[in-house]
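Step 1: inspect the first sequence and its C-alpha cells.
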Amino acid sequence: MPRTLAGYRDGMARAIWSGSISFGLVNVPVKLYAAVHDEDIHFSQFDKNGNRIRYKRVSEKTGREIDYEDIVKGYEISKGKWVMVDPKELETFDPKTTKTVDIEDFVPIEDIDPIFFEHTYYLAPDGQAAEKPYRLLLEAMNKSGRIAIGKVVIRTKQYLAAIRPLEGVLGLSTMRFADEVVQPDRIDAIPSDKARVTQREVGLAQQIVDALSADWKPDKYHDTYREQVLDFIGKKAKGKEIVVERAEAEEGKGKVVDLMAALEASLAEARGGTRRRAKRTTTKKKTTTKRSAPKRTAAKKQRKSA
C-alpha cells in the first residue's frame, strides 16, 4: 500500500532544513534531507459503529473544550506543585534563528557507542559554490577516520549532532546528550559477577557465533509482522473471508534447564543450517554446469563429424 514518505513529494526528496557547517574559518552551505522513513502501520480510531473518534482539549475541572491560544504550559517541580509558564515567555530561549552547525571536535567514530545516535539525515551542498568545500570536508574526514561533533537546531529543538561520511555523501545524525543515556548500573536486573561461566560453555557459545556468522546484508531482513498485516488489510479491503489461527505460545520457551545441553543443541542446529546453505550453493553451481554441458557435447560431435 503506497503512501507519501515524510520529506518526499512525487518520489523526490525535498529539504527539511537549510543552513551551513562551520569548521575553522570554512563555511559550507548545506541542505538537510531525510535518510530514513517510518514504515510502521498507523491506524485511526473509530467506535464500533464506524464513526471516527476525535480528541479534544478539555478542562479537567469544568469539562469544557479549551481553545489552543488559551493554553499555558505547566512544569511539575514536586508532587502536585506546578510552575505555570506562558509559551511567549519561552520565546526568549528559542534557538530557532541559529542556522549553523558549529563543529567543536573531530573524534574517532569507534569511540562513540551507537546508543548515542538518534535520527540520521543526508547533507547536500546548497548551491554550486558549496560543492568544493563540501567535498573538502568529506574527503578530509574519510582520510582521518574521524567524524565531526557539533550542535544543530532543527525547528525549535537543539541537538548534539555527528557529521560523518555516509555512502559517499555527508550524513548528519542527531545524538543524545550524556545525561539522556541511562547507565547500566541503574538497572537492578543486570547480572552480577556471581553468574560464573566455564571455559567450555564459552567455547561452545563462541562456536555457535562462528557457525551463524555472515556478511551484513540489510535486504535479507524483513518486517514480517508488517507484511502480514498489510496483506491481511488488502484482502479485507477486497471483501475476502479470512480465517486467522492464533499461534499458541510454546511451553517452556526461555527457560534454560541445562545450559550445556542447550548450547550443544544450538550448535548442532546452527551447523545444520550452515550445511543446508552450503548444499544449496553447491546444487546451484551443479545445475549451472549441467545446463551448459549440452553445448560442449554438441560442439564435440560437430568436430568428430568434420
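Step 2: inspect the second sequence and its C-alpha cells, then contrast the two.
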Amino acid sequence: MINITLLTSEDDITLTKTIAEYFTNYPDVEIVSIISNKIENSEIILNFRRYIGLKKLHNTTQYKEIDKILTETNTHYIITSGYNEKIPPNFCKKYNWKIINLKKYDMGIEVFFEKEKINEKDIFFRKDIFINRNETINETEIQNRVDDMAINFYPTLIEKVIRETYKKLYNK
C-alpha cells in the first residue's frame, strides 16, 4: 500500500478534491490524510468526509504536528498544493525525495521535489499553456487555463512518481 498525505489550503481545494477522487479506485494507493493550513468552510469539510473520512482531515501549520500525523499514518509521499507555509529545511531533509510540490505559475504548471536547501528544487515536469499568436486572452482566461491544466495533469503525474515510472521531462 502506498500512503499519500496531501498538504493543501482552501485556495487549492478543487485540485485536492480531484487528486483524492483520482485515487479512490486504486486499491494499492490511499490518501491517508489531508493537512491544511486553511480550511474554514464547513461545506468543503463535509465533501471530504465522502472521500477520506473526517478523522483524516487536519488543520495545522505546525511541522511537529504534521510530522506526528505523517508518522502515525505511515505516509510514503507528501503532495503539496497551495500550502503556502514555508517548509523548513530539516523537514525537507527528513522527507527527502518524498515531498512532491505541485506549483502553478503565471503561464503554466510545474512539479518538483522539495529539497533540503531553501529555494532548491528538482523540477521533473514543467508545461506552459498554449496561446495562439492570433488569440487575445485576458488574465482570468490565462488563470483558468492554468487551473484546467493542473487538474488534468497533476493526478497522472503523481501516479507516475509514486509508481516510479516518470522520467525527467524538464531540464533547467
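Step 3: confirm your contrast with the notes below.
The chain has five helices and seven strands. The chain has one domain: 2-162.
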